[in-house]
């Protein structure tokens, strides 16, 4: 955490849940980013009230209207962020916005499969494309040649639910549309990591834990991980024992070109590293780029 020096970042779906938690987390950093762009699809709506209140107290929060399932909205957001940043780039893009539909396999529909895939997978793809020029600019403007969040990064909020080898909560919710969208997001993250490495952009997919948010609670059982535990590395030692990985956004040093320089939280013995399927822990993704 102490090693992270970020001038600007953007979080999609920043008005509630993990997105809002991340914005609050970045505000609490010893050296908060100069600009926190908070993407929100309905900035004037009731569900954006808490974010609006936060922004009124913190002028470094810029609320950006952003519907990730709408290419025109994404383009407009990229233009607005670019204009705001003047000549400088964007250090971190966090593709957090996501939806879940809790259908059983036999009841899954074309409509729900399409809607969830569009939001959870195509959204991050288009976001990566639209913000690539700004991310490249940040990477080019940063000293050093390693890959790190301090330089330029795309962070995709995936889910263990998308893992083919470790199917989190299958007994509680089958949700094939969600699982397929996150499995595809993992592959997208791998593709981005391979394509954008040459531009100096770190790309990772992360599982935040089963977290106490609207989405986490929608499964009908109390989620074990608090929002603070999920977003804040300071809380990592107090986590729920059966959650194998939670995300740590931050490299332990500002030049994280080696896999070992990333921290991760492993509280189980799930051996996912080296697999090509489903969710892979942080060091696998960073390792694939180094
Ligand atoms: N919570 C968990 O246990 C858990 C576990 C694994 C992975 N995740 C992943 O973590 C991410 C955040 O989850 P969460 O628990 O914070 O979910 P959440 O509480 O349901 O919040 C979802 C956020 O995404 C936004 N959003 C949804 N569709 C959007 C769209 N088309 N365009 C723009 N914004 C959109 C929502 O905005 P509105 O307010 O406008 O709806 C909201 O801000 C998701 O990608 C989720 O899949 C969560």
TrEMBL record:
Q: Which Gene3D superfamilies match?
A: NAD(P)-binding Rossmann-like Domain
Domain of life assignment: Eukaryota
The entry sums up its family as follows: Belongs to the short-chain dehydrogenases/reductases (SDR) family.
Protein name according to UniProt: GSFK dehydrogenase
Tell me the name of the encoding gene: LOC101810308
Cross-referenced InterPro entries: Fungal_SecMetab_SDRs, NAD(P)-bd_dom_sf, SDR_fam
Which Pfam families does the record match to this protein?
Answer: adh_short
Q: Can you name one GO molecular function term for this protein? A: oxidoreductase activity
Q: Name one GO cellular component term.
A: cytoplasm
């Amino acid at each position: 955490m102490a090693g992270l020096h970020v001038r600007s970042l953007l979080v999609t779906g920043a008005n509630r849940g993990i997105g809002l938690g991340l914005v609050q987390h970045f505000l609490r950093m010893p050296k908060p980013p100069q600009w926190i762009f908070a993407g929100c699809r309905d900035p004037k709506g009731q569900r954006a009230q808490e974010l609006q209140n936060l922004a009124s107290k913190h002028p470094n929060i810029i609320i950006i209207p952003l519907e990730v399932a709408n290419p025109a909205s994404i383009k407009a957001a990229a233009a607005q962020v670019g204009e705001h940043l003047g000549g400088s780039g964007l250090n971190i893009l966090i593709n957090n916005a996501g939806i879940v539909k809790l259908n059983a396999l036999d009841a899954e529909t074309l409509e729900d499969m399409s809607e969830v895939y569009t939001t959870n997978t195509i959204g991050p793809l288009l976001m990566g494309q639209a913000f690539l020029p700004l991310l490249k600019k940040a990477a080019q403007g940063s000293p050093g040649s390693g890959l790190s969040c301090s330089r330029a990064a795309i962070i995709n909020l995936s889910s263990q639910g998308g893992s083919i080898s470790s199917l989190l909560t299958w007994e509680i919710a089958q949700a094939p549309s969600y699982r397929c969208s996150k499995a595809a997001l993992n592959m997208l993250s791998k593709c981005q990591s391979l394509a954008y490495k040459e531009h100096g952009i770190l790309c990772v997919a992360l599982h935040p834990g089963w977290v106490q948010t609207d989405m986490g609670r929608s499964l009908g059982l109390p989620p074990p991980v608090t929002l603070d535990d999920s977003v804040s590395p300071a809380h990592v030692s107090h986590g729920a024992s059966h959650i194998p990985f939670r995300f740590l956004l931050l490299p332990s040093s500002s030049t994280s070109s080696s896999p070992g320089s990333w921290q991760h939280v492993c509280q189980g013995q799930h051996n996912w590293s080296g697999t090509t399927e489903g969710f892979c822990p942080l060091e696998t993704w960073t390792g694939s780029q180094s």
